[in-house]
Design brief:
Layout (H helix, E strand, L loop, with lengths): L6 H15 L3 H14 L24 H9 L8 H13 L3 H9 L2 H12 L4 H15 L8 H12 L5 H13 L5 H9 L2 H11 L4 H13 L13 H10 L3 H11 L4 H14 L3 H9 L2 H11 L4 H14 L3 H9 L2 H11 L4 H15 L4 H8 L2 H11 L4 H15 L6 H6 L2 H8 L6 H11 L22
Length: 466
């Protein structure tokens, strides 16, 4: 783990450089950075702003500290509150380093106290406080506490609040759920899912709010907190679908936004996270969702956002074999290959396309010929050529190749003739691509250097020295 120093220690060294070695402020900061980095110290959370030091190296009183001190006073609502809140927000918006600095100076508790004071009394200041909290909590969800969660949910549940307040509180809650499993669980226990679906229905005619709520629902289905061995993403997705009837609501709203590709892309992305069971996939189809997605995909093939999200949701729906067959019969393979060709320079679309193709072929060998008949082998290998250093593209392409030829060996020659063996060999050098690359080469009938990890000789695995 990298060494760290406090802001105060860093400032003391800057001061010493200025006073003892007569350096300019900029020289002193640069020298201090070099000193610490040469010792392996991580300075990612250290502010290095020259304007915060006086000519003799003394640390000046930071304006954001003055603003926080002013906001912490228990006086009447003041005109200066507007300016102080904006200053705090602007400081947090600079980068994570500045957000951490503001957070370490008790900003969260001060802003939470102000939010309670302004709630229902002064809407403009309430909005500014929530914006400042959004900026502060961006990347710092650990700041949230039970008191804050209660206040945020109370605001969300208050039907007297208008759309601007509701939309912003959804954003604030979402910020505190990203990469924080415990916060997600806390909010779910406080009926967040029910409230988000209520807001979705209430403001379904508002594109901005629909997108924000869709994002909020999607965040609950993430498993992105490395500190927790097992997350609740799957359970949350089931709850959103079963208790919130979210699939019906999202698809109905999709039908109302056929001309707004930004909203549709957001809704497709959320749908892809919710179809975690066979019956959910079938429900999407029964509600007309599959036809809607395919039609939107075809109509907006040149739009990167729709193409990427349509590929993602189709791959998710194809986890159901009946849906998989329906997608292919409806021309899904041709659409995927057309999107990969249209956006061959976009790594995300190429990776999503390869993964979709690989999924369409699972347990469906008849679909392999459809891929080849539509020049899928050319498109997949072209993606590998265009993105030679992108591990995700290479990995998904290897999976697609393997699934094409695994049960239809007569198609192997088509890939080999186009140089697949060399391309896969290069892909295996990238992190995380070894197993998929090896499997693709094996099923293509190419030579694979298999390694015995353990032969049973020289003792057991438990006796191996590390």
């Amino acid at each position: 783990m990298a060494k760290q120093v406090s802001q105060e220690t860093f400032d003391d060294v800057v001061k010493e450089n200025i006073q003892e070695f007569e350096m300019t402020i900029e020289e002193a900061i640069n020298d201090t950075v070099q000193q610490f980095e040469s010792q392996g110290v991580n300075l990612a959370m250290i502010i290095r702003d020259p304007s915060l030091y006086s000519a003799d190296g003394e640390k000046l009183f930071h304006p954001v500290i003055a603003a926080l001190n002013a906001l912490s006073l228990d006086g009447e609502i003041s005109d200066t509150d507007h300016k102080d809140l904006e200053l705090v927000q602007n400081e947090c918006d600079i980068d994570l380093t500045h957000r951490c600095f503001v957070g370490k100076n008790d900003a969260y508790s001060i802003l939470l106290k102000k939010l309670k004071k302004y709630n229902g009394v002064h809407k403009d200041l309430m909005l500014k406080t929530m914006k400042a909290l959004c900026s502060l909590c961006n990347g710092q969800p650990d700041l949230l506490n039970e008191e804050g969660a209660e206040e945020f949910m109370a605001i969300l549940k208050d039907e007297n609040n208008d759309e601007s307040v509701t939309q912003l509180i959804v954003t604030l809650i979402r910020m505190n759920c990203i990469k924080h499993e415990m916060n997600r669980r806390m909010f779910v226990k406080k009926d967040l899912i029910k409230e988000l679906v209520r807001v979705l229905i209430l403001y379904k005619s508002s594109p901005a709010t629909v997108k924000e709520v869709a994002f909020g629902l999607r965040v609950l289905t993430q498993d992105d907190d490395l500190r927790v061995p097992f997350g609740s993403a799957h359970e949350n997705a089931k709850q959103i679908v079963i208790e919130g009837d979210a699939l019906r609501q999202l698809i109905d709203i999709c039908k109302e936004y056929t001309s707004d590709i930004g909203v549709q892309a957001e809704l497709f992305s959320t749908l892809s996270k919710l179809v975690v069971r066979d019956e959910f996939c079938q429900e999407v189809r029964d509600l007309g969702g599959l036809d809607l997605i395919l039609k939107s995909f075809q109509t907006n093939l040149t739009h990167k956002g729709i193409a990427r999200q349509a590929l993602t949701v189709l791959k998710a729906l194809a986890g159901n074999d009946d849906i998989k067959i329906a997608i292919v019969k409806a021309g899904g393979v041709q659409l995927v290959l057309a999107a990969m060709t249209q956006h061959q320079g976009n790594a995300q679309i190429c990776a999503a396309g390869c993964l979709a193709i690989a999924t369409f072929l699972l347990r469906q060998p008849d679909n392999c010929s459809i891929v080849v008949e539509n020049n899928g082998h050319h498109v997949i290998l072209q993606a590998m050529k265009v993105h030679p250093t992108d591990a995700t593209v290479q990995k998904q392409a290897c999976m697609a190749i393997r699934n094409v030829v695994a049960r239809t060996r007569d198609l192997c020659g088509l890939f080999v003739e186009l140089g697949a063996e060399e391309l896969i060999g290069r892909a295996r050098q990238l992190p995380g691509c070894e197993d998929e690359g090896k499997a693709a080469l094996r099923d293509l009938g190419c030579q694979v250097d298999l390694k015995e990890r353990w032969t049973g000789e020289k003792g057991s695995l438990s006796q191996t020295a590390y």
